[in-house]
Amino acid sequence: AQSVTQPDIHITVSEGASLELRCNYSYGATPYLFWYVQSPGQGLQLLLKYFSGDTLVQGIKGFEAEFKRSQSSFNLRKPSVHWSDAAEYFCAVAPGRSKSTFGDGTTLTVKP
Amino acid sequence: DTGVSQNPRHKITKRGQNVTFRCDPISEHNRLYWYRQTLGQGPEFLTYFQNEAQLEKSRLLSDRFSAERPKGSFSTLEIQRTEQGDSAMYLCASSPPGQGSYEQYFGPGTRLTVT
């Protein structure tokens, strides 16, 4: 069975600083990987996805993520954080069109 | 708005009552998913439909829970004899047909509070 670990429950960064959110997954084959963002009381919005090909994927809102098979990781990055990026971020893995398995999320706080 | 919609957005009910939630997926999306999310955790899979067929159910989905998608369009999730432990956000997502279309588009959720 697949699983996802997001080691950081809460991260605080200053506005304009760089950001990296960690995600480690467990899955027997090549996974489909996703990052979602959730604002308080809202549903999840897809930031980016990885299915195959180039291991560095670009998403919306200036985010990118890098798939590293050897480390079973799919870390999310942003070079310069904006106050509006404060939210909860979820990493997910799926075997295909079936269910996604999510991590428990990382809450991002942005200091002015 | 052509996104996934869910109704109601909030539901407060007393323990033992039945509740029903509705999800309208994005038009022409043939796959529909239900998840449950509690505070401080990521969404947990409940069930999944392809068209009107329910293809997978989680063990989390006890016999008090039932989901339908009768015509392959909207879906309903019913919880019978609600318990306080059912309090959570219930999220619906849909996904389009076709090769390479694996991402899921989420609705805003229905927050259930059982008192």
Concise synopsis of the structure shown:
Chain A is mainly β and 112 residues long. In chain A, 0% of the residues lie in helices and 52% in strands.
Polypeptide structure, described:
The complex is a heterodimer of chains A (112) and B (115). In chain A, 0% of the residues lie in helices and 52% in strands. With 112 residues, chain A is an all-beta fold. In chain A, strands 2, 5, 6, 10, 11 and 12 form a six-stranded mixed beta sheet that branches. Chain B is mainly β and 115 residues long. Chain B is built from no helices and eleven strands. Chain B has strands spanning 5-7, 10-13, 19-24, 31-37, 44-50, 53-57, 65-68, 75-79, 88-95, 105-106, 110-114. In chain B, strands 2, 4, 5, 6, 9, 10 and 11 form a seven-stranded mixed beta sheet that branches. Chain B has a four-stranded antiparallel beta sheet with strand order 1-3-8-7, with no helix packed on it. In chain B, β7 (65-68) and β8 form a beta hairpin. The radius of gyration of chain B is 14 Å and the shape is globular. The termini of chain B are far apart. The mean pLDDT of chain B is 92. Classes of the chains: A mainly beta (112), B mainly beta (115). Chains A and B meet through β5, β6, β10 and β11 of A and β5, β9 and β10 of B.
What topology does this entry show?
The complex is a heterodimer of chains A (112) and B (115).
Chain A: E1 3-5, E2 10-14, E3 19-21, E4 24-26, E5 32-38, E6 44-50, E7 56-58, E8 64-68, E9 73-78, E10 87-94, E11 101-102, E12 106-111
Parallel strand pairs in A: 2-12
Antiparallel strand pairs in A: 1-4, 3-9, 5-6, 5-10, 7-8, 8-9, 10-11, 10-12
Chain B: E1 5-7, E2 10-13, E3 19-24, E4 31-37, E5 44-50, E6 53-57, E7 65-68, E8 75-79, E9 88-95, E10 105-106, E11 110-114
Parallel strand pairs in B: 2-11
Antiparallel strand pairs in B: 1-3, 3-8, 4-5, 4-9, 5-6, 7-8, 9-10, 9-11
